């Protein structure tokens, strides 16, 4: 059949561009648990750009060239969604980077099914049909629409990729992930090199003060956990039944806030000697891991987060052992639960090194909350979230329930790590410290969920800080108990950790450690341009919050 005999709609380059770009998206929606909202927008936007370029060229070979990258990218996107139930992220590319030729062959043998072959053959057929059928629209009105929107969207893409550096949610699928991963790798390498150069040029001294007994210290970094949703801190729902059962074994600090409400900013001052005020100095500031290494600890970093977050990764890569479990799950984030770190944690605890410092970075309550816990922890399903004064809509109730379930699962995970630690050498000193990078607002003090400095609430700042120790009668634990109600800010974690590690160092500021007799609690804690004590008086109680006073 001659192309001229086809109905005009079947010759429209916008139609075929939409088909080629949306076909992979359809399979991502079907086979994967989560698709970013930006993925929809980028594919529709690029459909107009492709139609614009095809119309401008009005040649089959130009159509083939314009759509070919989306053919290759779509094959990868479909194959990954079908095989692993996920979408490409930088973590996925990190996992791919660690894949050798034998694993590739094994992958092909395992996932090459007739169903996938049929899907990909259909996609190739659609691409060939697009190349054959596309022709410059006869309607001048249609041409104008394609030209105007295509031109505008090209400018948007250029701006977002060159000026803003945002390839994700601008270029669809793996085509946007690849440059993001490349730039992230470069950024990470620079951060690692800067940190190593700093350590090489700085004459740091650190020693373990008492080597009589072996020591194992664990620091668990939670994610987006506010203590105001934890039963052990008085939340009406029993979201922490396991930790509550261990309450007599724990030191619970109840006046701790984060220095920032974003992970990178918070941890760059928590894990280094930098402070909340001069957080940009973290590149020139040694980390807890750096000092522990110098003192003679064997250090471990075990993470369920993205392996390419430059700030954190540059610190984690200084550890003697670094394990991002995302590489074990082909980068798929959804349904990758924190408990999958337990085997690695157990191995670290059982490592024969006499002095071990183990850092664990949870996925915790990272949005989307419903993806952070197994079905067995889907316990809170109330139609009306308990303890809230205002009438909430279904969307808010679902978010609160999912968030509380994620806290319930974090409670399980932390208690399991404590159990593993209890099984260790009874003659060694063992401690565990659990805290969160920042909190989370879930429709309590404001009609939002999440964390942002643009709409700061107490729940974004108020975090748990819980300590377990095998020697509950030790001096530092007794001091912690004495200081458990005093103000503390997470930018003091560096000094606290060195105190718990029993390290003598010129980098240690005992005045900033609540485990030290010399601790000086800050009278005012400044976060961004807000003083916490002034913004949230009465120990942070916000008059806007929806929780009943009796439940606080």
Short description:
The chain has 19 helices and 15 strands. By secondary structure, it is an alpha/beta fold. It has 2 domains: 3-183, no CATH class; 202-551, Alkaline Phosphatase, subunit A (3-Layer(aba) Sandwich).
Describe what you observe in this structure.
β5, α12 and β6 form a beta-alpha-beta unit. This protein has helices spanning 13-31, 37-57, 60-84, 90-97, 101-111, 114-133, 140-163, 173-201, 241-245, 263-270, 288-295, 310-316, 342-350, 394-422, 458-461, 475-482, 493-500, 532-535, 537-540; strands at residues 206-208, 215-222, 250-253, 256-257, 298-303, 321-324, 355-361, 429-436, 441-442, 449-450, 465-469, 488-489, 503-505, 526-527, 530-531. α2 packs antiparallel against α3 (60-84) and α8 packs across α12. It has two domains: 3-183, no CATH class; 202-551, Alkaline Phosphatase, subunit A. It is elongated, with a radius of gyration of 27 Å. It is of the alpha/beta class and 552 residues long.
């Amino acid at each position: 059949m001659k192309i001229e005999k086809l109905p005009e709609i079947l010759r429209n380059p916008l139609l075929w561009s939409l088909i080629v770009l949306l076909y992979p998206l359809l399979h991502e929606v079907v086979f994967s648990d989560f698709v970013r909202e930006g993925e929809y927008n980028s594919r529709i936007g690029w459909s107009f750009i492709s139609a614009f370029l095809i119309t401008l060229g009005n040649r089959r070979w130009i159509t083939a060239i314009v759509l070919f990258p989306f053919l290759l990218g779509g094959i990868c996107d479909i194959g990954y969604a079908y095989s692993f139930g996920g979408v490409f992220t930088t973590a996925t590319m990190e996992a791919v980077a660690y894949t050798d030729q034998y694993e590739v062959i094994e992958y092909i043998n395992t996932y090459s099914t007739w169903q996938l072959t049929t899907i990909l053959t259909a996609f190739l057929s659609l691409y060939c049909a697009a190349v054959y059928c596309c022709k410059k629209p006869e309607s001048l009105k249609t041409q104008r629409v394609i030209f105007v929107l295509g031109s505008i969207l090209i400018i948007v893409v250029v701006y977002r990729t060159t000026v803003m550096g945002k390839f994700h949610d601008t270029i669809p699928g793996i085509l946007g992930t690849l440059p993001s991963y490349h730039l992230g790798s470069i950024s990470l390498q620079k951060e690692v090199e800067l940190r190593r150069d700093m350590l090489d040029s700085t004459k740091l001294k650190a020693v373990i003060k008492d080597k009589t007994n072996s020591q194992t210290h664990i620091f668990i970094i939670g994610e987006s956990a506010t203590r105001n949703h934890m039963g052990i801190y008085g939340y009406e729902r029993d979201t922490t039944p396991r930790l509550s059962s261990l309450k007599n074994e724990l030191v619970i600090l109840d006046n701790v806030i984060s220095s920032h409400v974003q992970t990178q900013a918070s941890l760059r001052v928590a894990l280094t000697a930098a402070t909340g005020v001069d957080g940009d100095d973290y590149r020139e500031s040694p980390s807890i891991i750096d000092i522990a290494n110098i003192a003679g600890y064997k250090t471990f970093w075990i993470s369920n987060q993205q392996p390419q977050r430059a700030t954190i990764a540059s610190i984690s890569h200084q550890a003697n052992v670094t394990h991002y479990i995302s590489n074990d799950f082909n980068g798929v984030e959804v349904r990758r639960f924190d408990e999958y770190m337990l085997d690695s944690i157990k191995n670290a605890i059982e490592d024969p090194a006499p002095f071990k410092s183990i850092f664990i970075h949870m996925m915790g309550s990272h949005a989307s909350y419903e993806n952070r816990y197994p079905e067995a922890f889907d316990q809170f399903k109330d139609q009306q979230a308990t303890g809230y004064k205002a009438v909430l809509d279904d969307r808010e109730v679902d978010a609160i329930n999912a968030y509380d379930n994620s806290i319930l699962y974090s409670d399980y995970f932390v208690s399991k790590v404590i159990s593993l630690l209890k099984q260790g050498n009874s003659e060694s000193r063992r401690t565990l410290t659990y805290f969160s990078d920042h909190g989370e607002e879930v429709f309590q003090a404001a009609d939002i969920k999440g964390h942002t400095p643009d709409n700061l609430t107490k729940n974004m700042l108020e975090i748990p800080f819980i300590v377990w120790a095998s020697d509950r009668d030790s001096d530092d634990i007794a001091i912690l108990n004495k200081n458990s109600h005093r103000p503390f800010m997470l930018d003091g974690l560096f000094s606290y950790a060195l105190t718990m590690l029993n390290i003598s160092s010129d980098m240690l500021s005992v005045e900033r450690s609540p485990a030290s007799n010399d601790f000086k609690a800050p009278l005012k804690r400044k976060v961004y341009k807000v003083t916490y004590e002034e913004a949230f008086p009465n120990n942070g109680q916000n008059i806007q919050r929806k929780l009943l006073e009796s439940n606080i």
